[in-house]
Each structure stands twice: as C-alpha cells, then as structure tokens.
Amino acid sequence: MTTTFAQADDLGLFETVDLLPALVLPNNLYAMQEAAIQRGEGHAVLSLFQAWSEERNDRSWADIRRDGPVYRWSPTICGPRLNSDREGCQPIILNADLRCDHHRPGCHCPGDLIYRHLCTCGHVDEARDCENGAAEDAMDHGWTGWRDLPILACSMPMEKGTQRDRWTETVNETYPAGWLEAGGPVRTARSNGGRRHVPGRTPHGGYDMGVPVAETYASHTYKPGLYEATLIDLIA
After folding, report:
1. pLDDT of residue 191
2. CB count, 10 Å around CB of 127?
3. Are 34 and 86 part of one and the same domain?
4. Dist CA 49 CA 52 (whole Å)
5. Do 46 and 115 have their domain in common?
6. Within 13 Å of residue 31, how many CA atoms lie on the same side as its CB?
7. Which residues, including other chains, have CB under 8 Å from residue 21's CB and lie 6 or more apart?
8. Which domain holds residue 93?
9. 53 lies in the same domain as 15
C-alpha cells in the first residue's frame, strides 16, 4: 500500500503527529518530509522517518527491493548525540542521499547527497551541500557568538590526563563561563588534513569546529593552548 502526500494531508498528517505510526509510508517520504518542513513542523520529519523505519522492519527484503530507492531525510550516522539531561536547543544533523546507483552516462538522479540542521525545538535550516555547512547552521542557531570565540591550538586530547586537563583549563579561561558544561562548541586550528566539524569532541558532548589555517600546520603536534597565528598563516 502506498499513501500519497495528498492522502496523508487528508488524514491530518501534519496536524496530528499521533497518526504517524499508523500510516503505511510511501516511497515519496522525502516529499512528505519537505512538506512538513514548509509547514513549520520540523518534529514531523523525524516522526515520519521513524514510522517508515518501523514499517520497513516488518517487511521482507524481497518486498522492500520492489519499492526501489526511498529518498528521505534521516539522522546522519556520525552526527551529534542527544543528551536527555540537557535543557534547551540541541542539534540534529540530517542527510538525504538523492543519488541513484546507476553510475552510467545520462543517469537522471533526482539530486545529490545533501545535509541540513534540525533542532530539537523544531527549527529547521536550509539544505546544504556539505555536512560542515549544516553544522555551522546548528551552531548559529543554538550558540550565538561562537564564531568569535578564541581558536584553540589543538582538539581535546582523547585520553584523560594532564594534557586534557590543560586543554579544558584553557577553554574555561578564555570561553564564556559554563560554555563547555552547557554543550557549547569549541574552535580549533586545522590544516587541510582534517577540517570536518566533529560532534561530541568536548568533555560535555559539544562540537569541535575546525578553523582552516596554513597547510603546514599539524594540530596533533601542538600542546593544549590557544592558537597563535604565524607569519605563514597570515600570508596564507
């Protein structure tokens, strides 16, 4: 059974979220999620995805294959994790793979791999062509002023110990009071080797936002502290 968007609208899909689990969701899940976003119902995006996942789990693989590709917005596998004990906005990074698996000239894929930010408050940002762009939207929404924070010389050391303690001390001394504890992001100097904005890379699960610097810079060799721009950085 396929439920079209028009039929879902008649059922009050975007007015009563409780109806979602009872629906048999279609291949046009992406279109339904986009319609929910346009109506300002960001929470319905995840509800639709969850309902589709549950319905899919009850079907055989052969039955699922007959559907063909199901384009959809879904949480990224390596995205930020929600903290149930934290109040306020928390980011969810979604991605939609609108490519097909034909890999041949003249293929008519409906789109590309795209990303967007969905906040737990229901706010949704525009689609981006990269994960970093969606992460920056998330920080702009939840952490006003993050772009003006001091740049750290390196990311948080993975192992607990003196180096991590020094790193945390540097952040607490130069960032707003309580920033880390509230899940706020940090900014760290990065070369071309690794510029991804990494979720969960602070002691309290915040983002580590990469700041591009000179190609010769290798952040993993630097000790905890603030990043000091060199002449070659300024020229670059």
Report:
1. 80
2. 21
3. yes
4. 5
5. yes
6. 13
7. 50, 51, 54
8. 5-142
9. yes
The neighbouring-strand residues paired with 211 are 189
Residues 49 and 96 in one domain: yes
- 135 and 150 belong to one structural domain: no
Measured over the CA atoms of residue 169, residue 229, residue 207 and residue 194, the dihedral's sign is: negative
Residues 128 and 29 grouped into a single domain: yes
Contact 93, 79 (CB under 8 A): yes
Supply the pTM of this predicted model: 0.83
Measured CA to CA, the distance from residue 155 to residue 68 in angstroms comes to 42
CB of 29 within 8 A of CB of 49? Answer: yes
Number of domains in the chain: 2
Residues 174 and 64 in one domain: no
- Please tell me the predicted confidence (pLDDT) of residue 199: 97
Query: Which tens digit of pLDDT belongs to each residue from 192-236?
Result: 767 899 999 999 999 999 998 876 666 555 678 998 875 445 444
pLDDT digit string (tens) for 85-111? 888 899 999 999 887 766 566 666 667
DSSP 155: P
Give the H or E element holding residue 163.
helix 162-174
Query: Could you say which of 142, 158, 177 is where a domain stops?
Result: 142
**H and E: helices and strands count for the chain:** 7, 6
Tens-place pLDDT, residues 6-25: 555 565 555 544 444 455 55
Q: Residue with structure tokens 């702009």?
A: 140
Same domain, 185 and 107: no
How far is it, in rounded angstroms, from Cα 24 to Cα 146? 42
Amino acid in position 158: M
